[in-house]
Amino acid sequence: MAADMAPAPYYKAPPPAPVVWSWTGLYIGANLGWVGSADNNLTNTGTDTGAGGLGSALGLGLIPGSVGVSRSGFIGGGQVGYNWQLAPAWVAGIEADFDGTANNSNTSTFAFPGSAAAVPFTTTFTNGLDTLGTVRARLGWLYTPALLAYATGGFAYGETKVGSSFTCPTCTPAAGIATSSTGTATGWTVGGGLEWRFAPAWSVKAEYLYVDLGDRNSTIGYAYGPNTSTLTSTVKERDNIARVGLNYKLF
Fold this sequence. Notes:
Layout: E1 25-37, E2 41-48, H1 54-59, E3 66-68, E4 72-87, E5 90-102, E6 106-112, E7 121-144, E8 147-168, E9 175-199, E10 202-224, E11 227-249
Antiparallel strand pairs: 1-4, 1-11, 2-3, 2-11, 4-5, 5-7, 6-7, 7-8, 8-9, 9-10, 10-11
């Protein structure tokens, strides 16, 4: 009778439950990427109290009214942030970063050779972005437990600069005037990105930001006889940023 008994049924063990890493917590990281100017023009305006000054030269086209000052270069720094996983598929957070930039300043020089209208002179214009920081909110959707797509936006600040010079050895009086304006500008930023958790405490991200830091200008003045004139150079500081980052979740 025992030989005729049916074998005991075999039940395969259930697969282990997938490991799901929580996104909630504090993280720090580093980033590296590219930054380039989104508005590539410097504009000049001039005033004169009499004929023959900088405003007159600008009106005659001897000084350019618009100057191309496109910039691009590397950007890199660090970030710190905190995430809250609000629901299985939603993540909100706040992030602050601070970056330095390199190879992204510009100098444009325009030499007027002289004519019957004016003696020879040279004008030079500079523009640059030295540092950039942001404090941003983030809101994202988990396509998978490890892949987050997010939108981001908030406050931005940076060290911007613009300068101009006017050199005219044969003017009366001779001129060798230069000025610049450098300081911290504030504005806003908006963008988005993807972040992938490849280990419990590690993630990588790729993101794009558009930054608007407002306008910066500098003014040079020239006195000739009883008259005075000015030349004001203005840059709209708008930048595109594309970068990658590495984050480590502290807890």
